[in-house]
Amino acid sequence: MTRITQLLLATTVVFATACGNTADGAKEDTKNAAEATSEAASSAGAAMDAAGETADVKSALMADATVDAGDINVDTNKDTKTVTLNGSVKSEAQKARAEVVAKTKAPEYTVVNNLVVK
């Protein structure tokens, strides 16, 4: 083989190998991007679920005539399945009722009642 033919053959082998590696790399990058997208969508879904639970509990508290919910903050953590009540109410009865309402609206969640009676 002439020197030019050998050089062309070597170049062809290098390019063919590089294209194969690039294709494998592209497949791996696509797989990684798909996994990251799936994880992000799952996190967004969990946040939306938690926001929904928060809204449901807060709405139920506001609808309950025996609870002054104006100073009650509801926080929901979907990962730990926890609803936390923060803020203040006017009596122990309102504090207890707020907890019952939260447990009724989010039965699969643990309710942490941090309400203060003022």
Structural account:
Helix content is 64%, strand content 17%. It is of the alpha/beta class. It has one domain. Strands 1, 2, 3 and 4 form a 4-stranded mixed β-sheet that branches. β1 and β2 form a beta hairpin. α1 crosses α2. The model has no long low-confidence stretch (mean pLDDT 80).
Question: What keywords describe this structure?
Answer:
118 residues; single chain; rod-shaped; alpha/beta; 2 helices
Shape: rod-shaped
Largest sheet: 4 strands, mixed
The portion of residues forming beta strands comes to 15-25%
Distance between the termini: 96 Å
Structural class: alpha/beta
Percent in helix: 55-70%
What series of H and E elements makes up the topology?
Answer: HEEHEE
